[in-house]
Amino acid sequence: MGRGRQKAKHTKIARELKSFSPDVNYDALERELTGHSDDESYAGEAAKWAEYADDYKAADEPKRA
Known about the structure:
Layout: H1 3-19, H2 26-34, H3 41-60
């Protein structure tokens, strides 16, 4: 691709990005960034993975001779 066509393509993309304005859910973003979760399913998931952690904890410990 020649330099002129390449520059035109980059200019087109730059214009599209400049005018792009996505819809943002600020409440969800705040919950994600602050770490506060109103969802109870997180506690259930954490408990499930804690069981796996206990299983692998013994396997990760070095064996004593």
